[in-house]
Amino acid sequence: DKKEPDAKIAKTEEETPDKEEEEKSTKPPAGSSKSGWKNWKKTKESDSGGEESKITYCHWLLKSEPESRLEKGVDVKFSIDDLKAQPNQTTFWDGVRNYQARNFLRAMKLGQQAFFYHSNCKEPGIVGIVKIVKEAYPDHTQFDQKDPHYDSSSRKENPKWSMVDVQFVRMTKRFIPLSEIKAHHLAHKADGGPLKNMMLFTRQRLSIQPLTQEEFDFVLSLEEEKPH
After folding, report:
1. Where does the EVE domain lie (predicted)?
2. pTM of the predicted model, to two decimals?
3. Residue 71 pairs with which residues in a beta bridge?
């Protein structure tokens, strides 16, 4: 058995998956990473009268906990410094146990970039940028009884949970705190700016979140500004 480093257990802050959400997310055929995404879009289109279909997501925000927290006796801490310490500064993004977040994982494409976001800590916010270096494949932790994210209902022939591999790209030029992003979000809600519908504020608990090009570009532009 190849041993996995302890540090890489989960990137959490998930909602507990509920039955209703499970039923909505049909199991995708083997080898297809798109079906979960299509299913999510269909659901959103029916909720919003098709408005969602005009939105294209090509970037992501990945939440991870930089401070020690034990889950079933295992420390789930994983900061951007932990990522930088991995071989080739690359790791798998395991432990996602929410159906919508899983569908977002399955929609990720090779080379797409994501913000690395420190969550569930004293000052949450964006600390760096990573890129997707391997598209979705089964998350091995779902079958590991010793892992905090073991799922006894998942079968190897039809795994419920997926993960991707990510690689460190760079630190942001400065830490971009949640409080600052939220101030822009509130202003944009009033004046129709690019962060008006940012999922960080509409689905706060999701640990994997999509970003439009406009959202990504605007947040990235904040690294050039002096903090308020």
Report:
1. 59-221
2. 0.80
3. 74
Q: Which tokens go with 95? A: 């432990």
| Calpha distance 80→86 (Å, rounded) | 10
DSSP string over 59-85: EEEEEE--S--EETTEE----HHHHHT
> What is the Cα–Cα distance from 188 to 197, expressed in whole angstroms?
9
CA 20 and chain centroid, separation? 21
Phi first, then psi, for residue 84 (nearest 5°) are: -60, -25
Residues 110, 222: contact at Cβ < 8 Å? Answer: no
For tokens 């990522």, the residue is 83
Which is nearest to 116 in space by CA: 159, 139, 145, 86? Answer: 86
pLDDT tens-place string over residues 168-220: 999 999 999 999 999 999 999 999 999 999 999 999 999 999 999 999 999 99
- Name the CATH superfamily housing domain 57-173+206-212: ph1033 like domains (3.10.590.10)
